[in-house]
Amino acid sequence: MAKPAEHKDFIHYAQVISNYDTSGLVKTSEEGLPFLERDLSWLSFNYRVLQEAKDPSVPLFERIKFLAIYSSNLDEFFRVRMANHRNLLRVGKKTKKELHINSKQIVKDIQRIVNKQQEEFSRIFEEEIIPELRNHNIYLLRRLDLNEEQKHFVENYFKDHMLPFVQPVLLVKNKIRPFLNNAALYLTVLLAEKHLPNAPHKYAIVKIPSDHLPRFIKLPAATPEQHDLIMLDDIVRHSVSWMFPGYEILDTFSIKLTRDAELYIDDEFSGDLVQKIKESLARRQVGPASRFVYDREMPDELLDFIKEAFDLEKYDILQEGRYHNNFDFFKFPSFEIDHLKNPALPPLPYHPLEDADDFYQAMRERDHLIHVPYHNYRSVVRFFEVAARDPKVTHIKIIQYRVARQSRIMQALMDAVKAGKQVSVFIEVKARFDEEANLEWGERLEKAGVNVHYSFPGVKVHSKLALVRRIENRRARMYTYLSTGNFHEDTAKVYSDFGLFTADERLVNEVARVFSFLETVKVPEQGFEHLMVGQFNLRTGLESLIDFEIAQAKGGKRAEIILKLNSLQDKSMITKLYEASQAGVKIQLIVRGICSLVPGVPGMSDNIHAISIVDRFLEHARVFIFYHAGEEKIYMSSADWMSRNLSYRVETAFPIYAPHIRSQIKDFMAIQLNDNVKARIIDAASSNRYYKDGSDLAIRSQMETYYYIKRQSEQDGQIEAEGLPGPM
């Protein structure tokens, strides 16, 4: 096993972002190679999400949902990534010099880009979404828009439901400064004393209790066909004068503070890591500021007072519109108006496993691939539930990274223990924002008798593997499920992932070695010939595959690489891809999020074409295809090509051997590469231009994939009904 990192996460991060080119968005390495700074590339991805919100071809309620996704993404970005940059700003000059970083420039670029995006967000909401809602008889009202009946309703609602939670506080310089809760909404109030009109203005804050009450409140409407709404923020605005008798309310402006979400676990190589994480979770909500957002209409007088009162620095503050926490748009009422949503795409059955009388015989006969959310998740759930009931099953093993709050899979594991089986679960308690849920599941599983193993220090376990051992004809046989996504019944409805069911001994034996390593922390003696596993052979295996294509190209032979990833950031791998491009290897990239590689640079990356697809489902699968002299090497993986994945995680890339599945995967990749509706071009300018191929036929890859699988599902159903053998 590679030696774990022995330095702080933010120091490692600083080394990754060194040599930043302050003249533009693209930095240049010491070798003169172009790289797009990872966080600026991520902001470009999030803008692609915002593009969906302003696309008039997207149904209205889905556009509102994309506003929520954009906001939720940005909130996490500031709690994690921007918090790291802020830490780097605070280190001493000597440290900055040693690390060769320009953190100040990065922060400036992030603020400039985010401010520009927020202005567009406000424009989309005010000038496109609001008018379009009105076109459908949905009115989002402000307090001055209310009629007398609605005013009476709002006033009663405030007194009956909100009064205990608003917490009005009159601010007094250097004396009264209340604590601002992470991501809580507040209204700042500009006041004047009624009997002293020439006295200096007073300031106050009031909490908007969106943590206790719905953000959108339905109002009495003039007709049954009309739908009137008001945001909780504006109910507080309407009622604020009652909270400050003796004062005239001059104006109100919303604010929100986001706090650093990093756990900063000291010396995680000693002591009880699980206990340290529990203690750190309690501190997460009181961490230092990473972003303070305010209504851009706020006067300088009030902003200056707030900055001083809450000890905010200039790099902490960003402008937004009238409303914050716009991820609450996830809960925007739909009023059962279905035509303003995406048309239903019900998950399709995978008949060969769902309808199989003998699940294990079906796996022995051939490998099986599911592609969620196009396929439903029943086959995965059934894999565990069948194993829990089967008297021939002796062992079940699984890696838990993220899991649903209500999980049939976890319940099956606990049922299996009751049935006398040995169940082993490796829980990664450092899965960010799922730490608490994973700890809770760990405790529940341990109480049920499951053998639970927890995180390694310095390394995250991110593989998505499960293994079942069964006694058949007096000999042990193993079955495995390998996936690009988590064992999470909820995200399987919206995340696009692949899952492979196989009894191929070449794979199951090596999956067993991964579990042996996780449980014993002993390096397997036999190593890995088929799987590529992080901390062992993942990085070197990928490099060897690229080197083979380079050698082929230099020899004048056909050489091609297709990579589908969430993120491409690792400097070494990008350098290797540049080398391949220069040698003549044709490289096609489908990268959903971060792409630090810069395609299309003459003489450097002109053989690299990169697109990103953002649509109704989150693209989450990783697929690697190498032409390999006509004997294509096809892998699926849990790993993105980021330094953290390739050097600081236990990841798995698994080969696809079954011819019928190899054919399907190539079809899926061809569909995505031909997308001319939702694909954006990745380039040095981060332009996010939509890819157009000149074709008159619109190809939207997610819809094409759904109907490809629907045709296959219907064919499989017919084969199962007639008892015919499936493809081999």
Account of the protein in words:
The chain has 20 helices and 29 strands. It is α/β, with parallel strands linked by helices. Mean pLDDT is 89; it is low at 1-23 and 265-271. The longest helix is centred in the N-terminal third of the chain and has 33 residues, at 103-135. The strands form six sheets. Strands 12, 13, 14, 15, 17, 18, 19 and 24 form an eight-stranded mixed beta sheet that branches. An eight-stranded mixed beta sheet has the order 20-28-26-25-21-22-23-29, sandwiched between helices. It folds into three domains: 9-340, Polyphosphate kinase middle domain (polyphosphate kinase like, 2-Layer Sandwich), CATH 3.30.1840; 351-529, Endonuclease Chain A (Endonuclease, Chain A), CATH 3.30.870; 533-715, Endonuclease Chain A (Endonuclease, Chain A, 2-Layer Sandwich), CATH 3.30.870.10. The radius of gyration is 28 Å and the shape is globular.
CATH architecture of the largest domain: 2-Layer Sandwich
First-last Cα distance:
37 Å
As a percent range, the share of helical residues equals 25-40%
Task: Give the overall form.
Answer: globular
CATH class of the largest domain: Alpha Beta
Rg, Cα atoms, Å: 28 Å
Number of strands: 29
Taking the sheet with the most strands, its summary is: 8 strands, mixed
CATH fold name of the largest domain? polyphosphate kinase like
The assigned structural class equals alpha/beta
Corresponding CATH superfamily of the largest domain: Polyphosphate kinase middle domain
Q: How many helix segments?
A: 20
Average residue-wise pLDDT: 89
Strand content bin:
15-25%
Q: Which spans of ≥5 residues are poorly predicted at pLDDT below 50?
A: 1-23, 265-271
**How many domains in all?**
3
